[in-house]
Amino acid sequence: MPAELSPIDKAKFVAAKRAVDFIESGMKVGLGTGSTAAWMVRCLGERVRQEGLKIVGVPTSTRTAELARQCGIHVTSLDEAKWLDITIDGADEFDQNLALIKGGGAALLQEKIVATASDQMIVIADAAKEVQQLGAFPLPIEIIPFGWQTSKALVEEMLVSMDVLARDVTLRMNGERPLVTDESNYILDLHLKRISNPRQLALVLNQIPGVVENGLFIDICDIVIIGHGDGRVTVR
Ligand code: 5RP
């Protein structure tokens, strides 16, 4: 373990390290995005260097692709790999059904495509990400820039029609400008506080013209590996 880690980084590191034990030579591996996933990429790179592990990585963002290459991991596209053995990624929240909110790092679209194209998705998270009910973390949705204000209004209207009480919707910014994703889209963050029916909300959001994808991952995650600040790991 790297020396001098804060408890939160230690939690992320131990979860990442345990998840990498699931990877075997010959596997095609989806590489998630975010600070926890970055630990996983570093740990995987170490196994590639030290054990000569032969794997192919499919990154879920340009950031992850860059880090994976730096760590000596052979990187390819999903179209080249076609189907993956395993994807390991972080999450912003997970509940007891292993439903997730993702997209805090604005990579939800590629993350959902890659995880869905995998036999198994493992989520790695620090213990603070576990919730009774999803929604305290603002739900990100990816929308196309064309007519984004109309799409935002349609999302707000839909939330009213679903009797959602807390429904502040904000455009994610990068300084003075809208944040632009790897797919050249924008992100809306839905401040909902509680999501009573994640499955229904995920379906309804994706019906709105201009919405490309939402950050609710339902029935996609198979295992959550939880890291704790004292170095313990638990598995759900
Ligand atoms: C990126 C994501 C990340 O996995 C999520 O935001 C968790 O990030 P971190 O590990 O930095 O807390 O969904 O789009």
Could you explain how this protein is built, in words?
This protein is an alpha/beta fold and 236 residues long. 32% of the residues lie in helices and 26% in strands. It has a seven-stranded mixed sheet. It has helices at residues 7-20, 35-51, 62-70, 78-81, 108-116, 148-161, 198-205; strands at 28-31, 56-59, 74-75, 84-89, 93-94, 100-101, 118-126, 139-143, 168-171, 173-174, 177-178, 186-191, 211-214, 216-217, 223-227, 233-235. The site of ribulose-5-phosphate has 18 residues, from α2 and α5.
Short description:
Keywords: Isomerase. The protein has helices spanning 7-20, 35-51, 62-70, 78-81, 108-116, 148-161, 198-205, and strands at 28-31, 56-59, 74-75, 84-89, 93-94, 100-101, 118-126, 139-143, 168-171, 173-174, 177-178, 186-191, 211-214, 216-217, 223-227, 233-235. By secondary structure, the chain is α/β, with parallel strands linked by helices.
Shape: globular
Helix fraction by DSSP (H/I, runs of at least 4):
25-40%
Topology, number of strands: 16
List the uncertain runs: none
Average of the residue pLDDT scores = 97
Strand numbers in spatial order across the main sheet? 3-2-1-4-7-15-16
Bound molecules: ribulose-5-phosphate
The biggest beta sheet is recorded as: 7 strands, mixed
Q: Hey, roughly how much beta strand do the residues contain?
A: 25-35%
Return the structural class: alpha/beta
What string gives the helices and strands in order? HEHEHEHEEEHEEHEEEEHEEEE
Radius of gyration: 18 Å
